[in-house]
Amino acid sequence: MLETYPNKSSFVLEKLARYFIQVNHGDRILTISELLELAPVSRGTVQNSLQILKDVNAIEVESRGKLGSFLLNKDVDKLLKFASINLIMGVMPLPYSPVYEGLASGVLASKSVGLPVPVSMAYMKGSENRIEAVLSGKYDYAIVSYASALNWLKEHPYSIDVLLRMGNETLVKEIKRIEKINKKTKSKKRVGLDLHIEDQVLLSKNFYKDEDVDFVPIDGQRLFQLFSNDIIDEIIWNYDEINFALDSLISHELEPFEELNDMTEAVVIIAQERADLSLVLKEHLNLETIKDIQNQVIEGTMIPYY
């Protein structure tokens, strides 16, 4: 759509479209002077671009004199095209458990309903990697644990927004301590630590803080080999992902605490500067649909699709 307009107009139309996507019906809109802060061009260019959006019925605005102008209606489909948002791309953990498969299926199904642009999902290990990819603009949103989002915000305040909280056990059902029953006598226990999974690192270091253990850097997708080849003695891990059986292993429940619950909860985060997508995603991410599909996949009554 933007290719039909001069380069400067295309730039301003994109900025204005991204602004109007996030404005609710009935809200007062920015003045021309304030819109110039979004697109530092001439006043006339902003006025002309605003008129274009009105002429194609992308927005309907009412002037109320001294009170300002208010948004009466908007066509999100048209605004997304003017904003050059042709695809909404998310990123979440690698789907190697039914919980993750169900989550991916539920999010994609929920977001696809009524959304005027295609949606897709990518998969990446490590919550910090996913958050950084969103902040760099590679992806539009990410799914991480609530604990990861909170920890990130402690270090980087005002960088991300938590768009949707899905509730306990939507990212992970069970986190357990898994150990070998017949360990060889050693001076220290060898505890597996996947440095790419921040929640696992934090939880492990907290759990063993009063013990003298050796933390062994590992790839968590190779747990079977790690235990079979006597490389580690135990690990604290997402029990949903354990799809093998070893007679020499035993699992233990962890004592519940608030941070543990936060690690089991899936949340959707976006870059704080991407407020243009916030309203669109909120309208199309239906928590009831997501959880229903996730449960069906976990129970085996639905084939995952992602």
What does this molecule look like?
- The chain has 306 residues and is α/β, with parallel strands linked by helices.
- It folds into three domains: 2-82, Winged helix-like DNA-binding domain superfamily/Winged helix DNA-binding domain (Arc Repressor Mutant, subunit A); 88-165 and 266-299, 3-Layer(aba) Sandwich (D-Maltodextrin-Binding Protein, domain 2), CATH 3.40.190; 175-261, D-Maltodextrin-Binding Protein, domain 2.
- 40% of the residues lie in helices and 20% in strands.
- It has helices at residues 7-21, 32-38, 43-55, 76-82, 98-112, 127-135, 146-155, 198-207, 223-228, 258-264, 275-284, 287-299; strands at residues 59-63, 69-74, 88-92, 119-123, 141-145, 160-165, 175-180, 190-193, 214-217, 234-238, 249-253, 266-271.
- A five-stranded mixed β-sheet has the order 4-3-5-12-6, with helices on both faces. A three-stranded antiparallel β-sheet has the order 10-7-11.
- Helix 1 packs across helix 3, helix 1 (7-21) packs across helix 11 and helix 5 packs antiparallel against helix 12.
- The two termini are 29 Å apart.
Brief digest:
This protein has 306 residues and is an alpha/beta fold. It has helices at 7-21, 32-38, 43-55, 76-82, 98-112, 127-135, 146-155, 198-207, 223-228, 258-264, 275-284, 287-299, and strands spanning 59-63, 69-74, 88-92, 119-123, 141-145, 160-165, 175-180, 190-193, 214-217, 234-238, 249-253, 266-271.
